[in-house]
Design a protein that fits this description.
- The complex is a heterodimer of chains A (about 270) and B (about 240).
- Chain A is mainly alpha-helical and about 270 residues long.
- Chain A is globular and about 65 Å long.
- The mean pLDDT of chain A is about 90.
- Chain B has 7 helices and 10 strands.
- Chain B has a 6-stranded mixed beta sheet with strand order 6-7-8-3-9-10, with helices on both faces. A 4-stranded antiparallel beta sheet of chain B has the order 2-1-4-5, covered by helices on one side.
- In chain B, strand 9 and strand 10 form a beta hairpin.
- Classes of the chains: A mainly alpha (about 270), B alpha/beta (about 240).
- The interface between A and B is medium-sized, with 25 and 32 residues.
- Chain B: Keywords: ATP-binding, Nucleotide-binding, Transport.
- Chain B: GO terms for molecular function: ATP binding; ATP hydrolysis activity.
């Protein structure tokens, strides 16, 4: 029965027009990357990699926000959830299967984005081989895997928010805020720590430290610079980031399960 | 067999207000019985059904399905449910939706294929079975939902307003289907506003008003038409709408 729910979730995403729109936008951005590469004089590879990875991250984020959240919200609002829960399907299985279905959809989209990114970068490399630099295509692929794990975590968070939020819009806002805060806390914390202690009010320091530990650290999954400069990716660091992402997702999903089991489906 | 024992459910409204949706409901529906649950809008019929299926939880009291507490997922293994105003995954075809419904109950592909053909044929949906549900009329969607509720040949069928949105032909189809379920010895719990159908199909009827079961009895024992009895019971409760 888990497979049935996973399959339906995947199909729902795949047959959602928003996915086509997001794919089209990503495709156009990749074409723009090729065009843009012809307008810059140096570090062509770095800029193209940066653009391709940013496009992939943005497209994947849109899938979470405009497909994942909508799928779950619609299920609760339109009561389509009743069919499964009026049978012997445990609520925990239902939610986990929904998450896995969304993960499968996200994985499929990431695979398409990876292919598009690699085609774009190979094209740029062939067109501007002399200025391409030390970009590692292997690391570009790994960077996509990291974006995928990052989006799994964000999906788990959006599921948690949908358990407490009064409307899909609130879930959307909470998810995007978490994304924005989680993507920037590491940088802000470093900035505050590197600056002199008299530059910031103590309350700002406390707030930033609190946000750093309270929100997931999405910066851990950002491999743009590593891939663009062809730097070495340390296995320990990479392994930690992946375990952090998966562990955090499991923890968030577990909390969502507790809330879902108590939720009244009126 | 379904047993409700002193079941109460209160909903919290805005600004701390509360509304009692179901009050001390005690009811037994025997196996093989067709039970009709009627009442004015907002009386607590759908809430009773949702409590039975563990979609919402009672504040107090217990509900059992075939001796298992309704909180136990296993109690619903042989239950088919048609919600009020059902919505399906409209991006699926009827075939895909029935396959999904069958898979939820762990049916094999061959049984799903066999049961789907049978139900789609009975409900006159065979021709449209490979079209997406989003293109169906309301009546067709209602019939698809009924087929999905029956795909696993459940022993207990819970129907919340099964005639809603159906044209006379659709109503006849569903009426015949419920009559067939009755002949097969299934337990059926129907909530409906179509009193003539309830009168013709059900063995027993219960009238719920403002969350209370105000009347319960065999249809064969009725001394007046059900509609008349319904109006009288509702009027006796002092509900303004009927006065």
């Amino acid at each position: 029965m888990l497979q049935a729910i996973i399959k339906v979730t995947f199909l729902e995403g795949l047959r959602n027009k928003a996915v086509y729109g997001i794919s089209l936008m990503a495709g156009l951005m990749m074409i723009f990357t090729v065009v843009l590469s012809g307008m810059i004089m140096r570090d062509v590879g770095k800029v193209a990699t940066d653009f391709a990875l940013s496009t992939a991250t943005f497209a994947a984020l849109l899938v979470v926000l405009f497909v994942g959240i909508i799928i779950l919200a619609r299920d609760l609002e339109r009561k389509t959830i009743y069919l499964a829960l009026s049978r012997s399907v445990p609520r925990s299985n239902y939610l986990v299967a929904r998450f896995l279905g969304l993960g499968l959809l996200q994985g499929f989209v990431m695979l398409l984005l990876l292919v598009a990114s690699l085609i774009t970068l190979v094209l740029v490399k062939n067109m501007y081989a002399r200025y391409f630099g030390a970009v590692s295509l292997g690391l570009v692929a790994v960077a996509h895997l990291f974006v995928f794990v990052q989006m799994l975590l964000l999906t788990a968070l959006s599921i948690l928010f949908s358990m407490v939020a009064s409307s899909p819009f609130v879930t959307f806002i909470l998810t995007i805020l978490t994304w924005l805060i989680g993507s920037s806390t590491q940088e802000v914390k470093l900035l505050i720590e590197s600056a002199g202690s008299d530059k910031f009010f103590p309350v700002v320091k406390i707030l930033v430290t609190l946000a750093y530990y309270l929100f997931p650290n999405f910066a851990l999954f950002d491999l743009k610079a590593t891939a663009a400069h062809g730097l070495t990716l340390h296995a320990g660091k990479a392994g930690f980031a992946l375990l952090y992402g998966l562990g955090y997702s499991v923890a968030v999903l577990s909390l969502a399960l507790v809330l879902f089991k108590r939720k009244e489906l009126t | 067999m379904i047993i409700f024992e002193d079941v109460c459910k209160t909903f919290q409204l805005e600004r701390g207000k509360k509304v009692s949706a179901v009050q001390c409901l005690s009811l037994v529906v025997a196996s093989g019985e067709v039970f009709g649950c009627i009442g004015p809008n907002g009386a607590g019929k759908s809430t009773t059904i949702k409590l039975l299926l563990d979609l919402i939880r009672p504040d107090s009291g217990t509900i059992t399905i075939n001796s298992l507490p309704s909180r136990d997922n296993a109690s619903r293994a042989r239950v088919g449910y048609l919600p009020e105003n059902p919505c399906q995954y409209d991006f699926l075809t009827a075939h895909e939706y029935l396959a999904y419904s069958g898979n939820l109950s762990g049916l094999s592909s061959s049984i799903i294929a066999e049961r789907s053909s049978l139900l789609l044929e009975k409900l006159k949906l065979s021709q449209a079975a490979n079209r997406r549900i989003s293109g169906y009329s309301k009546g067709m969607q209602q019939r698809t939902a009924i087929a999905a509720a029956l795909i696993h040949n459940p022993d207990l069928v819970v129907l919340d307003e099964p005639m809603s949105g159906l044209d006379p032909l659709g109503r006849k189809l569903i009426f015949d289907l419920i009559a067939e379920l009755k002949e097969q010895g299934k337990t059926v719990f129907i909530s409906s506003h179509v009193l003539t159908d309830i009168e013709r199909l059900c063995d027993r009827v219960g009238i719920i008003v403002q969350g209370r079961l105000c009347h319960e009895g065999q249809v064969s024992d009725l001394t007046m038409p059900l509609e008349e009895l319904f109006l009288q019971v509702v009027a006796d409760t002092g509900l303004d709408e009927v006065k």
